[in-house]
Design brief:
By secondary structure, this protein is of the alpha+beta class. The protein is built from 9 helices and 12 strands. Bound molecules: adenosine-5'-diphosphate (ADP) and magnesium ion.
Length: about 350
């Protein structure tokens, strides 16, 4: 079967493993990924039938009902451990010869054993450090690009060049977005060692209230704090908890584009200190509620999707929990609980 050379190039560039069979199920093409996955070098595969090439016999039963299917599960008998895969097959029409079959083989993830999970977590911690380093390296050139864009924009303005001015404004906005993703990502990747002291939740909320006062006025939002009369103490890092509360307050503001009310309530509940942030904004749909804490999930044009991931990290670092309940069109309540400090 004559295959165009470009097909090999194209299939080599795809991340999935691909094999093309001719009309009588002989290998006409195998891409690089498949050579690796099947441990089958191209010269040993081309022209062979499925049952004559060592790594391919497992495919034969899949093709018994024809050469067009999607997502058939199979197990690759590789040395030592089987690898779970999904196979797609589609007819491949070609000029001048009977149709071939394009097979795409995708590895599916194995549920990891506990041993592997720990390895993964360890390497994630390493990735955090590398990411933090990489972010600083990206920031520096970004700062100079920003500077030059501002110069360019000023010059275009002087020359009354509207098109260039607009482009520069757009570029500056996009750089701003990259910067906010980078700072949020850095906050998530940074080391978790936090200094821990006695913190009064009531005082924290008063601080947060004054920090967000300006934004609240601009967004036509009234912020009310309901605080207990006595200090409500937890053990932790006040700056981090403030950061989490400000993130939550900003989200609330953004959910109330036409103004509204945010109520922050703190209370003691036995061994637990509870903070509730209730807004009367647009609310969160049921199918989104499981997504919102995932990094990079955002419904906002210029959102980073990292705010709630950071909040959750901060709360959990304090041995606490964050939960949400919401009604579309009514509003949203985020509840944070922390272990209270014992008074002895
Ligand atoms: N108070 C809220 N009211 C409605 N939706 C919210 C609220 N807080 C968070 N969300 C939803 O959760 C998503 C993720 O929030 P977050 O992680 O802070 O990222 P970002 O604010 O950058 O979008 C938001 O895009 C929004 O859809
Ligand atoms: Mg946010």
């Amino acid at each position: 079967m004559e295959l165009p050379a470009s097909l090999q190039v194209a299939l080599d560039a795809t991340p999935a493993a691909a094999v093309v069979l001719d009309a009588v199920h002989r290998v006409a093409l195998i891409n690089k990924r498949a050579e690796k996955l099947l441990a089958l070098p191209r010269p040993a595969a081309i022209g062979r039938g499925l049952n004559d090439a060592a790594g391919l016999a497992w495919l034969a039963p899949l093709l018994e009902d024809g050469g067009a299917f999607a997502g058939k599960a199979a197990s690759l008998p590789l040395s030592g451990h089987p690898v779970a895969v999904l196979v797609d097959a589609a007819p491949l029409p070609l000029d001048g010869s009977p149709d071939g079959i394009l097979l795409v083989i995708r590895e599916t993830q194995h549920p990891c054993e506990p041993g592997r999970r720990i390895e993964q977590l360890e390497s994630l911690a390493g990735i955090g450090e590398i990411a933090a380093g990489a972010i600083h390296e990206i920031r520096n050139p970004l700062t100079s690009i920003s500077g030059f864009i501002q110069l360019m924009r000023a010059r275009a303005l002087r020359q009354a060049d509207q098109v260039t001015t607009d482009y520069c404004t757009l570029i500056a906005e996009e750089i701003g977005h990259i910067n906010s993703v980078l700072s949020d990502f850095l906050a998530l990747a940074k080391s978790r060692n936090t200094k821990s002291v006695a913190v009064d939740i009531g005082q924290l909320i008063r601080d947060v209230q004054s920090l967000i006062y300006g934004e609240a006025i601009l967004s036509k939002i009234t912020v009310t704090a309901r605080l207990p009369g006595e200090p409500l103490l937890i053990h932790g890092n006040g700056d981090k908890i403030k950061e989490a509360l400000i993130n939550l307050a900003r989200n609330a503001f953004q959910a109330m584009p036409d103004g509204g009310a945010l109520t922050i309530t703190a209370s003691a509940d036995g061994p637990v200190a509870r903070i509730e942030l209730a807004d009367n904004g647009q609310g969160i749909a049921d199918n989104a509620i499981t997504e919102i804490f995932k990094p990079f999930y955002t419904t906002k044009e210029s959102g980073t999707g990292l705010g709630l991931a950071i909040c959750r990290r901060i709360v959990e670092d304090h041995g606490g929990e964050i939960t949400v309940s919401s009604e579309v069109g009514e509003g949203t309540v985020f509840t944070l609980t922390f272990p209270r400090m014992r008074e002895d």
